[in-house]
Amino acid sequence: MSTAVDASVAVTEQEDVMENILGGKKVAVVFVLGGPGSGKGTQCSNIVEHFGFTHLSAGELLRTEIKSGSENGAMIDNIIKEGNIVPSEITIKLLQEAMIKSENDKFLIDGFPRNEENRAAFENIKISPDFVLFFDCSEEEMGRRLLGRNQGRSDDNIETIRKRFGVFVASSLPVIQYYDSKGMVKKINAAKPIAEVFEDVKTIFQPYGPKATQMPLRE
Questions:
Q1: CA nearest 135: which of 199, 188, 183, 177?
Q2: Using one digit for the tens of pLDDT, what is the confidence trace for 122-152?
Q3: Is 108 helix (H, G, I), strand (E, B) or coil?
Q4: Structure pTM?
Q5: Contact 43, 198 (CB under 8 A)
Q6: Of 166, 116, 115, 109, whose CA–CA distance to 142 is shortest?
Q7: What does the alpha-carbon distance between residue 66 and residue 126 come to, in Å, rounded to a whole number?
Q8: Tens digits of residue pLDDT in 19-64
Q9: Sign of CA dihedral 32, 150, 198, 168
Q10: Count of C-beta atoms within a 10 Å radius of residue 37
């Protein structure tokens, strides 16, 4: 895997492929993957503030669609309530619509693709990321962080944390390995303090240029 030190990003490599899919709009897309508690959410916020990307969370888009009361949202809600996985095509459609509607042309897609089926669905519509940003962190450290949260989350207990780790290893690691075989993974040591992690992130995102007005680093 490439590291922050030797990362070299080809910013425009995929633009021609995505032009037709997104209605003629040329964009840069980065997939952001990491286990629960790896700190990718915090770092996504820092990337947004310092480099001007738009952060798209597949899960948040699904929740927003459900809350909208639309026919599509009702269908998604029923699928989830029945304990089934939302088809990749639905999630991808929401991501595609969000990119088209946005005035931005740089996107972080957070937590997707979660598995090989998701990845294949993306490839079928000819959307490929510039690269995959992987926040690598040990299970022990991620567990410590999750248990130390003071957010009242019902899924932050030993049993559910272990299940989440298991799902990540079984489903998401093969996706990371696939992109790594193509030389598209930029691995970050996410066990370090937030500020140090972001220094590595900045090295990777330097080719995209800083945002005109930067906000203070999120701790």
A1: 188
A2: 888 777 799 999 999 988 888 888 888 655 4
A3: strand
A4: 0.78
A5: yes
A6: 166
A7: 27
A8: 546 666 788 899 999 988 899 999 999 999 999 999 999 889 999 9
A9: negative
A10: 24
